[in-house]
Amino acid sequence: MSISTDARRARAFLQHATEPTTPVLARYIADVGPVDAAHRIADCSAPADVLAESRRHVRWQLAETSLQTVASLGGRFVVPEDDEWPAVAFAGLSTLVPNGDTDGGPPVGLWVEGDVRLDELAAAPSIAIVGSRAATEYGEHHAAEFAYGLASRRVPVFSGAAYGIDGAAHRGALAADGVTVAVLGCAVDVGYPAGHVRLLDRIVRSGGAVVSEYPPGTPPARHRFLVRNRLIAASLGDLRQCVAVQREFSQLKDLGRQNYRVQHVLRKATCRLDLQRSGREVETAAATVSPPGT
User: How far apart are CA 219 and CA 8, in angstroms?
Assistant: First the structure.
């Protein structure tokens, strides 16, 4: 096997062996490399603190099956050893540490559906639009409008594919024939949420991507959605902005991203948004937001 093939197989195994962002495992991989780390966890010769954070009796066949599953979907497993890996975007994650509800650290690898390259997405000006699942019609309308305005200017729109604001953002970007990326808190093959399976398919067919750090078959769980939020924040390109509609997005400040929160009502027919930025009111229309230098 090539180094990349060995590393890919090892990293797929490691994702089955532990939940993402376990600090002990991240340090161990950095120290000995993914291949040695996987083999030592598999034969229980890894240090005790690493084994304590690992699932026991994980079989190598799980890694092989996961790689076959994502290939059968037309997807791929992207690892740090690949040229496509967005190393610069994820560099900031190395400084994050477990913090209450959220964990930090770079992903072991990413399962991807969609032809667009991750490094190209990370290098481009982009925006995240996230928010409440129990959104109002007002919130969903403006999330879609904001996404449409930016996607029509070739700004990729990142979100989490959940009901409410996330789904509205994805649909707004697709309506503009733009690129949108769904970062999941479960595996790409799970089909969650069930009501967004067609939306996820549209995202892939329209030149976007569906991305997860969880191997095929991994079900959704609350803590996984909290953990995946750091990937949405880290993946943003030069625009480095997030619009949190009817919800805050706390991890952005740790990664140097600007966080805006839609907070007031529609003003007559102007379709303007009132945004809060660093405690100051900023009024802007979606059509006026564009990448730096344009």
Answer: 22
Do the beta carbons of residue 179 and residue 203 sit within 8 Å?
no
Domain coordinates of the chain in residue numbers? 1-64, 73-288
Question: Cβ distance 130 to 242 under 8 Å?
Answer: yes
Which residues have C-beta within 8 Å of that of residue 263, sequence separation ≥ 6? 274, 275, 276
Beta strands at 180-183 and 157-159: parallel, antiparallel or unpaired: parallel
The pairing of beta strand 180-183 with beta strand 209-212: parallel
Q: Cis bond leading into 215, ω under 30°?
A: no
Q: Could you tell me how far CA 148 lies from the centroid of its own chain?
A: 20
Q: Are 171 and 200 in contact, with CB atoms under 8 Å apart?
A: no
Cβ–Cβ under 8 Å, residues 184 and 228: yes
Is the Cα dihedral 225, 237, 251, 92 positive or negative?
Answer: positive
pLDDT digits (tens, 9 = 90+) for 168-220: 999 999 999 999 999 999 999 999 999 999 999 999 999 999 999 999 999 99
- Looking at residue 97, its pLDDT comes to 46
**In the chain, % of residues over pLDDT 70:** 74
Pair 276, 242: CB distance under 8 Å: no
Three-class SS state of 251: helix
Secondary structure (3-state) at 21: coil
Q: What's the fold here for domain 73-288? A: Rossmann fold (3.40.50)
CB distance 285 to 268 below 8 Å: no
Task: Provide the mean pLDDT of the chain.
Answer: 80
